[in-house]
Specification:
315 residues; 5 strands; alpha/beta; single chain; 5-stranded parallel sheet; 15 helices
Amino acid sequence: MPPTDPNYTTLRTQLATLTTEAFRPDLADIDRRPTLDIARLMNDEDATVPAAVAERLPEIAAAIDAAAARMARGGRLIYAGAGTAGRLGVLDASECPPTFNTDPSEVLGLIAGGPSAMVTAVEGAEDSKELAAGDLTALAVADRDIVVGISASGRTPYAVGAVEHARAIGALTIGLSCNADSALASAAEHGIEVVVGPELITGSTRLKAGTAQKLVLNMISTITMIRLGKTYGNLMVDVRASNDKLRARSRRIVALATGATDLEIEAALVETDGEVKNAILVLLAGVDGHEAARLLNASKGHLRAALQSATTPTP
């Protein structure tokens, strides 16, 4: 985009108003400071991020409750962003199957420019609202779904376009940005604006803004899964044991939940084909694997409800 292009002037004016793009004269000599001083400075800056997130907890909680309600009815959680924001969405989505045993189609991450943009910048991809609409159309997004637009600036066309398209078809929309009065928050049903202030390196929103976005995405996915019954207390009872570490963790989770012996745990896991939640129900309720599966299905996967049902006498 050449300097003579009217769009260039407009964009430059927009960026000048963003807190995340602000220049800090007090750090103009940062390249001349000792490494330890810079490290301390970065650490001090990062320490301010949780407080900024805390200010937005009511909005975050409201968005999560709405998202959990949609997912309980079969909706999908879909993140959409460009650059660092898009990568963070893809990261959060990719960690849900092993952590909460979700199907890969239940939580998805879209990044402007497609999968290759995870490691290589795709020029111009973030500037297209139409590209976002096309990506969501390819997923057949419907009114039961949730679309979370992620953008540090709050103006990225791809993120804004994703939210606008999703909202127009009735999907639940959440806009996560790091600037106040953002276009993204305005476009979404649930706007979350975590204002972290200017970055250590001017405009490098992979720093505080990226940290803030990661913290909020952690909350959105984790608490939504808690609401959906994917945990028992603070135990990951829906963990998918796909490697040795997770298999060991599965056995430890069953032990923590039940206090059973190793032999009892192994027998319960064999009885339930390795399903942690089912094995816990077998041990705590004294039912077989088939009945455990039936009870969990009837309780829509909520272990506490299944336990209550198993131990409540039939009238």
